[in-house]
C-alpha cells in the first residue's frame, strides 16, 4: 500500500503507524493522508482466502469468526474524531478499509464505498489523486500536532534488552508463568498454581523460548540444561532435543538445528 501511495502528489502529507490514547483507550492508525479538506484514514488489511458475512459476523471459509474490520474502523474513526476535537483540528475524516491481498474474496460483501477491494484499488488511488491537496501552513501544523501526539512507545512496542547471564533460569508454568520444580520422574509441578505438567512438554517449550529470545545463539544441550535451571536432567533434555532437532557435530563441539524434514 505504501508503494501504491507514492503516485500521489508530493503535497499530500502521509503519516504512518500512529498510536494514540484517548479516554484511556489506545488505538492505532496504519496510514493517514492529509488533503486540503479532509483526512483519509486507511486501515490496510492483508486477509487472504474466502470470507463471508453471516448475521453481521465476518467469518473465514472454515466458519471461524474474525474481528469485524468494519467495527474496528468505526471505533478507530470515532476515537480519531475525538482526538481531533481535543487538539482543535477541524477536518472531515474519510475512513476506508483497504483489502490489498489479491487472494481475498468476501462473499455477500456489503455495498459500501467504505471498503476497497483489491479490484477497486486502482480506481481508489485515481480518486485520491484528484483530491485537492494544495495545503497551507495550517496543514503542516496539523501534521506536526498529530505526530507529536502519537505515543512513541506503547505497551505493544516496549523494547526490552536482556542478556542470558542476567536472566533467572528455570522452567515456567504454561498457566501462570510461575517457576516449576520436579514432581516425580516424568512430571513437574508449578510452585505458584500447583499445575502439574509433563517434563518433556515444558522442556520443549523452554527450547522454543530460548530460540525466540536468542535467535543468534546455537542450541547446545548444555545451554538448554542451564536455561532449565537444573530442574530437568541432562538425559531428558537430550532426549527432547534429539526428538525435535538434528544434532550437528563440528569437531569437538556440537549443536542442534531444527529438523530438516518433519517426522
Ligand atoms: Zn502455574
TrEMBL record:
PROSITE patterns in the cross-refs: NERD
Domain annotation NERD: ranges: 1-103
Superkingdom of this protein's organism: Bacteria
Pfam families attached to this UniProt entry: NERD
Protein known as: NERD domain-containing protein
Lineage: Bacteria, Bacillati, Bacillota, Bacilli, Bacillales
